[in-house]
Amino acid sequence: MNKGVNYEIDRVLNNKHLGNGSILLFHNDAKDTPKALPIILKGLKEKGFQIVPISQLIIKDNYYMDSEGRQHPK
User: Fold this and answer.
1) Helix 33-46 crosses helix 5-13 at what angle (to 10 degrees)?
2) How far, in whole angstroms, is CA 33 from its chain's centroid?
3) Which of 7, 1, 6 lies closest to 31, judged by CA?
4) pLDDT tens digit string along 25-52?
5) Across the chain, where does the E strand assignment appear?
6) Taking CA 27 as the corner, what is the angle to CA 21 and CA 28, rounded to the nearest 5 degrees?
7) Contact 4/32 with Cβ under 8 angstroms?
8) What pTM did the predictor assign?
9) CA 8 to the chain's CA centroid
10) 6 secondary structure, DSSP code
11) Three-class secondary structure of residue 64 per DSSP
């Protein structure tokens, strides 16, 4: 899907499912991602999100998954 930089930015920053613990996947062969990613990262930080490695998000033991696929400790 090559719908443009603005589409990609809007798709991430205004996604109704964006929340604490969201894992964002960007394909390395997408045409517009290199232009959109710095703007997306800045926008996420402005919304109060912290960018961390996935290893800091995954709960390995004693958790449950909600209907959005987010892990929560029990």
Assistant:
1) 30
2) 13
3) 1
4) 888 888 899 999 999 999 999 999 999 9
5) 63-65, 71-73
6) 125
7) yes
8) 0.80
9) 12
10) H
11) strand
